[in-house]
Amino acid sequence: MSDRIEKRIELRAPVSRVWRALTDYREFGAWFRVDLSGPFEPGREAIGHITWPGYEHVVWRAVVQVMEPQRLFSFSWHPYAIEPGVDYSAEPPTLVEFHLEAHGEDTVLTLVESGFERIPASRRAEAFRMNDDGWSIQLENIRRHVEDSVMTDGHAG
What we know:
By secondary structure, the chain is α+β, with helices and mostly antiparallel strands. The protein has a single domain (4-153), classed as START domain (Alpha-D-Glucose-1,6-Bisphosphate, Chain A, domain 4, 2-Layer Sandwich). It is 32% helix and 33% strand. The chain has helices at 15-23, 25-32, 121-153; strands at 4-11, 34-36, 45-50, 59-68, 72-77, 94-103, 106-114. A hairpin with an 8-residue loop joins strand 3 (45-50) and strand 4. Helix 1 (15-23) crosses helix 2 (25-32), helix 1 (15-23) crosses helix 3 and helix 2 (25-32) crosses helix 3. The termini are far apart. Residues 12-147 form the Activator of Hsp90 ATPase homologue 1/2-like C-terminal domain.
């Protein structure tokens, strides 16, 4: 098993549109399916509730690390931390990075989640497997979110 997940997707939307979908907490919540309590801010914890059916009991927590406009958005979190009543705060988090790169009028979005080697062995393989599958779904979610809005709005803004 690798210690990192890496996925790339080309989105038919400009970097500015993808950046907004990643970093505006309401837009992030719409495609990621989490109801966040407030804006993302580097160094601060973002908290919300998952709205994905079957996971509504999960409190979503992530600490925003970097927000380099239209280039890099990253946060750390406890992967696949879904068991009610379990305190994951003592575990080392993984780092999730969204790298944006213009490709003509489109955007190449690269997702990297690293640090799985530090997750306790008892949950490492399952956390990796679930996040690997989950990120494939989430990249399709953001693709639909940004591409539908570009086609609906008739502009990228």
